[in-house]
């Protein structure tokens, strides 16, 4: 990542908007993976499967039933920290969304919207 | 993990809340002097609004669809008020005469507005409706005055 | 000249958001019940929304963050989700009320059933949104809403006792619960959060940067100033005509009566036309606000400028919210009643969406040198205090006065 230094993980990194190399919005930082002692950021975690972790216990059970179990690659994605290019008002990634498996929810191929008359 | 004692508090609290609500709601349907007052005052208000609409028609200074739609809405409100007054049981039986008169006035207002609804472009009809609504409004005001006089 | 054209965003957010069915109803009722005594509450609300909008517009321009980005960043996932759920409920209820309001106004103008008009209104909105670019949508509703200046003309035609009107601007606290309920209602109807959600996202739709900060301030002041003038005028014409007669304005059509009285059929048509654009604009604002909030909170791609192909989930959610609004409006509940509840719920939820914006607007690490100065900080926190007090008082007052029914 450009401009190494200290990062306020909760204040500036967690819940931040993630954009790919082309500037497409591809989700938010739903959780952060820290490893080692002293802890270092090793990855960003994205996906609905991670929401129950962020909720108080009672709601977490309900949320787990809605989002399903954490399925890595499906509703939980891991973006290695090396993929992060820049940290400005968004988390900017080095690659395009497709290369990282991100932004599938907004993939036009998956929607009938493409066939609507005004497109 | 909450202690077993804590867990059992919720159903009791819920029951208390429901009981309070039921008690509060059970008061509905009884017409206190205050509510009768308000009901009749709203009749006066409806009549006044109807007069304004009728006046617009009488001066040929309004749109017929507007006059018709307004007259319809106001008429329905007057009818609804008549039903409310007629259905409720009185808290103070001595106000029975006023309640009877109020229902009559409500019906009269509803009828007049109905006429306006049917003839939203007729200036002559509208003049008459305006005049009679004025009289009905005065009758309603008189009932309110009687009720205030009766109030302890 | 350019500057004047550019404040279209402010005007539509103000007029479309400010003078929606809730405001039309609350101001008219306030005038009928209390004559000019609540004018100060209108002004209080206008200044409040201008402060809130300016802050959120500045945050959007400088940091590229619309309201629900700010909320998620500053409050985290849990509290942010609470704010999202509350805002979505309010926005959908508001949308339903506005759709119903459009249908009522169309019923007053043309002979056809309400149910048909609700559906027609929704279709018209879809067509307008699909055909016009964001700026065009703003201008269409914003400038159309200016027809309501016939209300200002009516004030001068009526020529009220200006001394009495002036006294209405001085805060007076009547102890009656009904008066207090209307203080909350008038203020809350002015500070509907969806206006600000729409405004801050709109700033990003238009690609605002630090260079647009003067424009942002102008939008907030002129846009809401214009809205405020119209709201004040509505209170005055209603107070002048309805208060002495004891008229209780429970219908949307009643709002136009003073203009009919002053200028006949022309006045009536201008008033109804202006109301139609205002309520229509509010339907746009609230429906977009609902989709903006959802997409921004979850990190989806969003924006009218992106189009359905690049932001399919955002577009789909907009249509879903529209359908929900139609369903509620068609259910037969009186839109005026829906409005009473949505306004009260909005003020209760307001602290949740206001506080994060206030905090970020004052945070130099996000805002650099554009963080809140002394005036903005003072006003910002003052209004937060006012909002919290009103949020706490709102539901008790709603219950005590039977939603203004007395």
Short description:
Chain A is an alpha+beta fold. In chain A, 20% of the residues lie in helices and 25% in strands.
Structure description:
The complex is a heterotrimer of chains A (119), B (152) and C (406). Chain A is of the alpha+beta class. Helix content of chain A is 20%, strand content 25%. Chain B has 152 residues and is mainly α. Chain B has 6 helices and 2 strands. In chain B, strands 1-2 form a two-stranded parallel ribbon. The mean pLDDT of chain C is 92. Chains in contact: A-C, B-C. The A-C interface holds A 11-12, 14-18, 24-28, 30, 46, 51, 54-56, 59, 89-90, 103, 105-108, 110-111, 113-114, 116, 118-119 and C 63-65, 69, 72-73, 76-78, 80-81, 130-131, 298-302, 307-313, 315-316, 365-366.
Q: What tags apply to this protein structure?
A:
heterotrimer; B: mainly alpha; Four Helix Bundle (Hemerythrin (Met), subunit A); 2 strands; 3% strand; globular; C: 406 residues; mainly alpha; Amino acid/polyamine transporter I
CATH domain fold name of chain B? Four Helix Bundle (Hemerythrin (Met), subunit A)
The main sheet of chain B orders its strands as 1-2
Helix/strand order of chain B: HHEHHEHH
Distance between the termini of chain B: 58 Å
Number of strands of chain C: 0
**Overall body shape of chain B:** globular
The helicity of chain B comes to: over 70%
Largest interface: A-C, 33 and 29 residues
Radius of gyration of CA atoms of chain C, rounded to a whole number: 20 Å
CATH architecture annotation of chain B = Up-down Bundle
Mean pLDDT of chain C: 92
Strand content of chain B: under 5%
Average residue-wise pLDDT of chain B? 83
| The CATH C-level class name of chain B | Mainly Alpha
Q: Largest sheet of chain C at a glance?
A: none
Task: Flag low-confidence runs of chain C.
Answer: none
Which class of chain C in CATH terms? Answer: Mainly Alpha
Structural class of chain C: mainly alpha
Q: If you consult CATH, what is the topology of chain C?
A: Amino acid/polyamine transporter I
Write the layout of secondary structure elements.
The complex is a heterotrimer of chains A (119), B (152) and C (406).
Chain A: H1 9-13, E1 17-19, E2 25-28, E3 31-35, E4 40-46, H2 51-54, H3 57-67, E5 77-80, E6 84-87, E7 91-93, H4 97-100
Parallel strand pairs in A: 1-7
Antiparallel strand pairs in A: 1-2, 3-4, 4-5, 6-7
Chain B: H1 4-7, H2 9-26, E1 30-31, H3 33-58, H4 64-87, E2 89-90, H5 96-118, H6 123-150
Helix pairs in contact in B: 3-4, 3-5, 3-6, 4-5, 5-6
Chain C: H1 2-6, H2 8-18, H3 21-34, H4 39-63, H5 67-109, H6 114-131, H7 134-145, H8 149-158, H9 162-168, H10 177-190, H11 193-205, H12 213-245, H13 257-298, H14 307-310, H15 312-330, H16 335-361, H17 364-367, H18 374-400
């Amino acid at each position: 990542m450009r401009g190494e230094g200290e990062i306020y993980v909760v204040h500036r990194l967690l819940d931040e908007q993630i954009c790919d190399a082309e500037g497409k919005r591809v989700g938010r930082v739903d959780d952060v993976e820290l490893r080692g002692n002293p802890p270092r950021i090793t990855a960003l975690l994205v996906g609905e499967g991670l929401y129950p972790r962020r909720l108080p216990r009672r709601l977490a059970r309900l949320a787990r039933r809605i989002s399903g179990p954490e399925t890595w690659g499906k509703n939980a994605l891991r973006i290695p920290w090396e993929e992060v290019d820049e940290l400005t008002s968004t988390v900017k990634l080095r690659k395009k969304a497709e290369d990282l498996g991100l932004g599938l929810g907004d993939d036009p191929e998956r929607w009938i919207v493409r066939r609507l008359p005004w497109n | 993990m909450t202690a077993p004692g804590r867990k059992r508090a919720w159903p009791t609290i819920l029951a208390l809340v429901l009981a309070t609500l039921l008690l509060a709601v059970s008061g509905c349907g009884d017409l206190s002097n205050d509510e009768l007052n308000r009901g009749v005052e709203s009749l006066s208000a409806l009549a006044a609004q109807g007069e304004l609409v009728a006046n617009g028609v009488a001066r040929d200074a309004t749109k017929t669809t507007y006059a018709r739609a307004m007259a319809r809405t106001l008429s329905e409100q007057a009818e609804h008020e008549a039903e409310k007054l007629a259905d409720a049981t009185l808290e103070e039986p001595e106000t029975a005469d006023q309640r009877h008169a109020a229902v009559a006035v409500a019906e009269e207002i509803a009828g007049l507005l109905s006429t306006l609804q049917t003839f939203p472009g007729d200036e002559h009809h509208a003049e008459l409706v305006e005049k009679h609504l004025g009289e009905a409004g005065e009758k309603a005001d008189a009932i309110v005055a009687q009720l205030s006089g009766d109030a302890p | 000249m350019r500057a004047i054209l550019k404040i279209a965003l402010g005007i539509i957010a103000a007029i479309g958001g400010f003078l929606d069915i809730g405001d039309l109803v609350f101001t008219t009722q306030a005038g009928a019940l209390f004559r000019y005594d609540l004018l100060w509450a209108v002004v209080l609300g206008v200044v409040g929304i201008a402060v809130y909008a300016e802050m959120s517009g500045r945050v959007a321009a400088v940091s590229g963050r619309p309201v629900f980005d700010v909320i998620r960043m500053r409050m985290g996932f849990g509290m942010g989700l609470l704010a999202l759920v509350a805002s979505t409920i309010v926005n959908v209820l508001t949308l339903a009320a506005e759709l119903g309001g459009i249908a009522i106004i169309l019923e007053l103008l043309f002979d056809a059933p309400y149910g048909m008009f609700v559906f027609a209104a929704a279709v018209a909105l879809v067509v307008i949104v699909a055909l016009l670019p964001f700026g065009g949508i703003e201008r269409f509703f914003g400038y159309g809403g200016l027809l309501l200046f016939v209300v200002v003309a009516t004030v001068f035609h009526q020529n009220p006792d200006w001394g009495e009107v002036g006294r209405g601007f001085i805060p007076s606290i009547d102890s009656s619960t009904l008066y207090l309920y209307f203080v909350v209602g008038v203020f809350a109807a002015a500070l509907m959060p969806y206006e600000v959600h729409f405004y801050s996202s709109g700033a990003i739709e238009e690609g605002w940067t630090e260079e647009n900060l003067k424009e942002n301030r102008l939008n907030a002041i002129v846009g809401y100033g214009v809205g405020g003038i119209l709201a004040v005028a509505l209170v005055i014409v209603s107070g002048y005509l309805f208060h002495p007669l004891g008229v209780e304005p429970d219908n949307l059509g009643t709002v136009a009566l003073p203009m009919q009285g002053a200028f006949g059929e022309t006045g009536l048509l201008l008033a109804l036309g202006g109301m139609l654009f205002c309520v229509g604009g509010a339907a746009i604002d609230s429906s977009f606000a609902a989709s903006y909030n959802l997409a921004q909170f979850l990190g989806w791609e969003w924006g009218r400028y992106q189009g359905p192909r690049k932001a399919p989930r955002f577009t789909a959610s907009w249509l879903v919210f529209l359908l929900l609004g139609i369903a509620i409006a068609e259910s037969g509940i009186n839109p005026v009643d829906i409005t009473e509840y949505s306004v009260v719920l909005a003020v209760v939820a307001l602290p949740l969406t206001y506080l994060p914006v206030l905090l970020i607007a004052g945070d130099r690490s996000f805002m650099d040198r554009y963080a809140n100065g002394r005036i903005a900080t003072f006003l910002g926190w003052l209004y937060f205090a006012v909002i919290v007090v009103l949020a706490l008082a709102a539901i008790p007052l709603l219950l005590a006065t039977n939603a203004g029914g007395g």
